[in-house]
Design goal:
Length: 314
């Protein structure tokens, strides 16, 4: 069965939100289900911990200010919850260029926070946040046919909790675009932005599934094989500041296009076995990555940026 990924719709989220009409101010709330990557600042060596939680954005439309409510952050058996005071926010909007045959899409960043943010339920330090809103018009304009985006939102928070823990949020599903360099026998043979990368992070088992989606066409307007590569069971490597992904020989399956242009199912193929896979996060918020691996006699190195995040559907 073809597995597709669709990012959560802002419109659907708003259906589950509230609007207070009983006083002067009206507002809406949007929930974000994310994972927390937690560093104990009182320990110089303990690896990071992972904890799922829900953060809710409360937007006071009347005053045009926001607050963040956090619930059920679990650290060493303790539960933490808090609500920030009201914060102003800055909006930056920009256009994402369309791929072949698509329409331009748009992204807006809301940034907020600072070194001192008031909160009830906890002491917060250096609380900084960003919410990414995406709008990609039309059903035909998608990042690619397997990772569908119409409207979506993603939350990124970084803060100190109770003067002891450093907390950074991360979404379990991350979509990256950037530049991939292909080398063979020590020489660069191709540099392209037509490889896209999707991470499905399992924080319980501490392993990942990595998808590489190929958008390179040959002279006959056919996708160059393999059209998709999937690596499963890629292991987390934890350290005090975060984690990386490494696997000398991950379980690899590929999707090939036959001579008639038909897409085959993902399947094992001895000619396309990934080896020496590694992924390093280049930024504290996990939005910048470097990926390296070997495939079909080539060394591939990717460096890029997370452009969307979301949840999978079957």
């Amino acid at each position: 069965m073809l597995k597709k990924f669709i990012l959560p719709s802002l419109a659907l989220s708003l259906l589950a939100t509230s609007c207070d009409l009983g006083n002067k101010d009206s507002f809406y709330t949007v929930p974000f289900n994310v994972y927390n990557v937690i560093t104990d600042m009182h320990s110089a060596s303990d690896p990071v911990q992972f904890s799922p939680s829900t953060y809710s954005l409360k937007h006071n439309v009347t005053k045009d200010v926001i607050s963040i409510d956090a619930s059920n952050i679990s650290i060493n058996g303790q539960k933490f919850s808090f609500e920030t005071g009201e914060m102003t926010y800055k909006v930056d909007s920009f256009k994402l260029p369309a791929d072949e045959g698509g329409s331009d899409s748009y992204k807006a960043n809301w940034t907020f926070g600072g070194s001192e943010v008031s909160a009830s339920g906890a002491t917060l330090g250096y609380f900084n946040g960003k919410i990414n809103w995406y709008y990609i018009p039309g059903t035909s304009n998608q990042l690619n046919p397997y990772f569908q985006v119409t409207t979506a939102q993603g939350l990124n928070l970084s803060y100190q909790l109770n003067d002891r823990y450093m907390v950074q949020t991360i979404n379990p599903y991350m979509y990256y675009m950037g530049s991939t360099t292909e080398s063979q026998d020590g020489s660069i043979v191709n540099v392209t932005d037509k490889y896209h990368y999707f991470l499905e992070l399992n924080f319980i088992n501490k392993e990942a599934t990595v998808y590489v989606y190929n958008r390179i066409y040959d002279g006959n307007n056919k996708i160059v094989n393999p059209q998709m590569v999937r690596m499963q069971g890629v292991k987390f490597v934890l350290n005090h500041n975060g984690f990386s992904l490494q696997d000398a020989s991950p379980k690899t399956q590929v999707r090939l296009i036959d001579e008639q242009g038909k897409e085959n199912d993902l399947a094992d193929n001895a000619a396309y076995q990934v080896t020496d896979f590694s992924l390093d996060f280049l930024s504290a918020d996990f939005t910048q990555v470097r990926i390296a691996f070997k495939l079909a006699g080539k060394d591939l190195t990717f460096q890029g940026t997370c452009v969307a995040s979301g949840s999978p559907i079957l």
